[in-house]
Amino acid sequence: MSAREIILIDEGVYTKGESVFRAATDVDCVQTPAAEAALAAAVLEQGTRAVIVGTKPYTGPLYEALGKKASTLIARFGVGHDSINKDLARRHGILVTNTPGVLDVSVAEHTVGLLCSLARHIAATHADMRDGKFAPQTGLELHGKTLGILGFGNIGRRVAASAHFGLGMEVIACDQVAAPANLAALGVARYTNDAEECFRQSDAISIHLPALASTQKFINAARLAWLKPTALLINTARGAVLDEVALFEALAAGRLAGAALDVFEREPYVPAQPDKDLRTLANVVLTPHIGSNTREANVRMAEGALENVRHFLAGRLDLLNRVAGG
Ligand code: 8YV
User: Which of 37, 62, 63, 151 could form a disulfide with 209 if both were Cys (CB 3.0 to 4.6 A apart)?
Assistant: First the structure.
C-alpha cells in the first residue's frame, strides 16, 4: 500500500487535469467514479482525507463518509460550488475550497464564441452543410449593438471588455453592488442595479450569475418578457438561474430571437419537460458545459485544486481558498 496520502479525484476532472495529477509525486492521485455512492465507498475504503470534485451535486453519502475523520476536504476543480452542500460539509467538519480566477478567460472566450455563433447562425448553417444543404441565413452585425451583462464578476467583466474593445459593442453591466470606479476602462458604457433596464435596452444578454437560493430561475417568463423579440440570450453561468421551460416557450413563440446555453438545469441535459426540448428548436446553440474546458484552464484548475489539498495536508488552513459558507 502507498505511504503517500491518497487523493480521490472525480474521473471527469481527473481526465481534464491528468497531466498535473499524474505528475504529482507527494500525493497519490486516484481517479474515482464521480457518482456519490461510489466516491463515498472509495473514501471509506482508502481512508482518504481529501477529494477533488467537479460539478456533480453531492447530497449525503459523501459527507457521511468524509465525516468519519476529524478534518477532511472537498476541493472543487473550478469555481462554482453550488453542487456542494456547505451546511452539511460544516456539520461533518469538512472544509470546502475552489479555484477562483483561473477559468475566467476560457469561459469569457466561450461566451463570445456563442454570441458570434448566434448572431451569424454558425452552428445552424454548419449543421445544414453536414446535411448536404447550402442554405445561407442572414445574420446580425454585433458592432454597435448593446450587450447586457447580468452579473458583473470576473467573467462578466472579461466578456464586457471583449465585446466592447474587440467587437465594438455598447455594454450595459448589471449587478446588485455599487458600480466599479473604472467603468470606461472595463469597456462599460452604463452600469445599473436594475435588471429590467438592462434587459429592455439590450440586443443580447449574457448571464453571469452564481447559483444561489436568491438566483434560482432568476431568468423566468416575466423577466424574459422584458427582452426585445430580436434579442439573443447566452448562459455560460449555471443552469439553475434560468427557467428552461420559460425559455423554450419564449423561443418557440418568437418572443426571443435566439439562445445559446452551455449550462443546464440538469447535466447531462434532460429537458425540464419532454415536450419542451431545447434541442428541437432551430434558434438555439447548445454546448455540453465546456466554458472552462480548455487545455490551459484545465491545467490551472488542477494545479489550484491540488494546491488547496497540499495546504490542507500541511495544516496551512490559512492558505486555503475556502468558499463562502465552506
Ligand atoms: C467546471 C464550472 O467546474 O468552475 C465552474 O464553476 O462550471 C466549470 O468550470 C469544470 O468544468 C470542472 O467540472
Answer: 151
